[in-house]
Predict the structure.
Amino acid sequence: MPTATVRLYYPSDAFGDLICWRLETDYSHATIEFNGTIYSATFPKVVSVPLTDAAFGMPPRKGREYKITLTDEEYAKGEAWFKAQVGTDYDVLAMLGWAFRVSAWQSRKRYYCYESVYACLAAAGVFPENKLLVTGDQLLVDLYATGRVVTGALPAVSVVRAMVQKAPVAVSGQ
């Protein structure tokens, strides 16, 4: 079975620290890797970069990575979903919505980092539905619930944080 790698990054600057503070988490960013390419919703656009790109790689960035098993069909669907997103706009309003706790600012057509990884895995069939306004901890807890994580331990603190963080919005059929 093929594997994809989900990465949750620790902040590397003051803006990352601000994200962590507002989302009540240790993670400031998330990406997913297929076939040596990292896919990332990063302001101002969704990008794909080689695994060796210093801005996205670990190292030099620090964080946690989780390998997940996918069927060949799920892998192809997930990679195709993210390839189709490359070049689309980053969801700036969702980030402002998080900052001010206004969920109505959430776009249904653009994503921020955690949402993009979640939407990719929902499109692949790993998750039964997509969720918007999701945090890194919520993504990780839901990912472990699928039973597909083959590397990396689920931090107990992520389970606690996922329960107390603002609830994500489920979006069926997306």
Notes: The first strand starts at residue 3 and ends at 9. The two ends are 25 Å apart (CA to CA). The helical segments are 14-23, 72-85, 92-100, 113-124, 136-145, 156-164.
